Amino acid sequence: MRDERKAEHKAKRGEHRQPTAEMKADHQAMQDLILADNFDEQAVRDLAEKMSQRQIDRRVEMMKKRHEMMNILTPEQKAEFKANQDKYIADCAH
Question: Which Gene3D superfamilies did the record assign (predicted)?
Fold first, then answer.
């Protein structure tokens, strides 16, 4: 499963470095709204909501993949993983 994800990520690596057409359109829309004679709050809200929804969709997909990976662990492995995560968080807090 991990190798699959790694290969998938590697195949998409170049795509992430280049903004998608959708991202370019959003950037252009932001510029148009900023440069407009009058501030259109509803248009800004609509654009922000659209961009936020795509971010949420990406996060959900990422969490889904992580869940699939964690779900194959035994209870002992999950406990060990959690302990390692807790230690990492504690170490970062200092």
Answer: 1.20.120.1490
Q: What residue numbers bound the domain in which 25 lies?
A: 2-93
Residue 28 pLDDT > 90: yes
The CATH number of whichever domain residue 88 belongs to comes to 1.20.120
The full DSSP string for 3-55 is HHHHHHHHHHHHHHHSPPHHHHHHHHHHHHHHHSSS--HHHHHHHHHHHHHHH
Q: For residue 79, what are its two tokens?
A: 């406990």
Structure-block tokens of residue 62: 């990422």
Which range scores top for mean pLDDT: 9-13, 18-22, 39-43, 65-69? 39-43
Domain count, the chain: 1
Say if residues 89 and 81 touch (Cβ distance below 8 Å): no
The pair of three-digit structure tokens given for residue 77, joined into one six-digit string: 């492995």
80 vs 94: CA distance, rounded Å: 22
